[in-house]
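Priority: medium. Attachment 1 of 2:
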């Protein structure tokens, strides 16, 4: 079997854009007609530039290759241009390619991917969501504590047993920063309001984005410990594992991180430094499905757990589900609300979400199929990137 064709889709995610402004999908086709899908997460260039980058890599390394030879293809792409390091641009592209190859392998063998990576461990997967605004919200769910508390209570009624939110405020290219007393007070009151709204029925996930210096993160953690969050996410930027480890040593709140990291090498550093006990790799960036399985195995040896990141499209979500299902140390899966809306529309059959849990599919490969007609009819025409930081310091 050989891969003989590829096609990319740059899809505009309609308002309210939950999951990002756009998604980049890859379709690989073999000489026997089997099709596999993958997704690249947040490569930091305009998506139509990324489309050309994917084409270049596919033409150099993928066309004519055997999709079963994952390790060989992975090393060739990882080392392209004399890199051999966790560059997130090439890793996003490689992740989409690798994901699509696994989809092909599963379809050829008529097995879900999780059955090829150790077999099913979990019958259902606990899920959480960010608190997203509704049209009827009069105030901002991201900054108004009462609105956030109200939404959190509604999520609990839907079946969620965990919700995530960032109470610290905007993130900037000039972070990390020392939070003001006013911001510390606001954040503490914000978390208190949400905890009182959900009681002990729901875990709170503090979803910060590396805004704080080490000392500031420790100050905030001391205030939040009494609300017993399940985790404190990326309290400092991910570039310095030693400083994140300093935060971890100073708080009882588990540290979670990983969405901006790639490959087993960066996650090995996290574990060696004891910087985090919950790993949040993004399947469309980390290096793909097998790379994530290797990281999950390393984490298991350190009694760390995995909680894959998701702020993109449903193909990456489907890949996350495959890893979650076969990993004994799976903790919880990020979901975009209940996997509905455009996330469901762009698939031929939606991902199953039931009362706070995702149900793993038993279909071969990723278990989902991209609706290409919907993808083509929703092209991205904007100029902004998937995610953008403020370009001025936050005072």
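Attachment 2 of 2:
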């Amino acid at each position: 079997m050989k891969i003989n064709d590829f096609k990319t889709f740059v899809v505009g995610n309609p308002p309210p854009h939950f999951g990002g402004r756009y998604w980049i999908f890859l379709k690989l086709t073999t000489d026997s007609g089997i099709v596999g899908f993958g997704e690249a997460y947040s490569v930091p260039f305009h998506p139509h530039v990324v489309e050309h980058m994917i084409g270049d890599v596919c033409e150099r390394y993928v066309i004519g290759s055997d999709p079963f030879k994952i390790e060989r293809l992975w090393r060739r792409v990882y080392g392209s241009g004399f890199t051999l390091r966790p560059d997130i641009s090439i890793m996003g592209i490689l992740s989409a390619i690798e994901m699509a190859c696994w989809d092909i392998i599963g379809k050829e063998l008529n097995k879900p991917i999780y059955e090829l990576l150790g077999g099913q461990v979990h019958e259902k997967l606990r899920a959480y969501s960010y608190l997203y605004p509704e049209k009827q919200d009069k105030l901002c769910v991201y900054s108004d504590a009462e609105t956030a508390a109200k939404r959190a209570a509604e999520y609990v009624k839907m079946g969620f047993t965990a919700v995530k939110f960032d109470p610290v405020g905007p993130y900037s290219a000039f972070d990390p920063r020392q939070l003001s007393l006013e911001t510390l007070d606001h954040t503490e009151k914000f978390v208190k309001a949400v905890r009182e709204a959900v009681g002990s029925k729901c875990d709170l996930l503090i979803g910060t984005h590396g805004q704080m210096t080490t000392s500031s993160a420790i100050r905030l953690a001391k205030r939040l410990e009494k609300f017993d969050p399940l985790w404190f996410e990326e309290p400092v930027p991910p570039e310095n594992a030693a400083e994140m480890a300093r935060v971890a040593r100073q708080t009882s709140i588990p540290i979670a991180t990983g969405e901006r990291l790639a490959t087993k090498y960066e996650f090995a550093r996290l574990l060696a430094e004891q910087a985090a006990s919950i790993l949040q790799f993004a399947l469309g960036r980390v290096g793909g499905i097998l790379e994530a399985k290797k990281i999950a195995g390393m984490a298991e040896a350190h009694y760390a757990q995995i909680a894959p990141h998701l702020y993109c499209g449903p193909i990456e979500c489907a890949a996350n589900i495959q890893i979650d299902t076969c990993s004994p140390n799976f903790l919880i899966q990020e979901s975009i609300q209940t996997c509905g809306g455009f996330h469901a529309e762009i698939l031929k059959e939606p991902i199953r979400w039931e009362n706070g849990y995702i149900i793993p599919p038993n279909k071969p490969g990723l278990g989902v199929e991209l609706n290409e007609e919907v993808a083509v009819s929703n092209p991205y025409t904007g100029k902004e990137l998937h995610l953008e930081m403020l370009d001025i310091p936050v005072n």
